[in-house]
Amino acid sequence: MKRYPIHMLLLIAGLSIIVIAILCGAQNILPKGVKSTGFIGFDIVELIHAITKKQLIGVGLILMASGGFAIVTVLTGSGVGVFSAFGSISADIAHQMNGELAAMLVPIQLASGVFRTMSPVAGCLIAAALIAGVSPMSIVRRTAIPAVVTFGAIFAMNMFMNF
Description:
The chain has about 160 residues and is mainly α.
């Protein structure tokens, strides 16, 4: 059992419990607000659809928030300042959505850190450009693709670990 991903084990265990409940005579397995299709097989598909739809909304919100923080970080050159200023707003949003605080704040904080390397007005980038004798924009061009790929990998790993 240790070699299998925990998400798949939980999915299979949950579906098994639903099937056992149906075999024991449960009439309605759907969450509130989801209408029955009349056939229990389609109701199971509808249940999975309702669960994944809710999860995708959360992932979309986190991606939009991280993108917003990334844009502000690139424009201002300060990842810590942006996160300090707007982090509490993200905490309020996570609380209102009944989501995990860490699942929302970790990608936002990482976006603030990673995308600072793409800001031509960041102090560390300007200092590195002066030492190297190149323009800050040439460093931004060299770090843009690695920063985006790094954030994509970090975001995907966070979503895999938290959802």
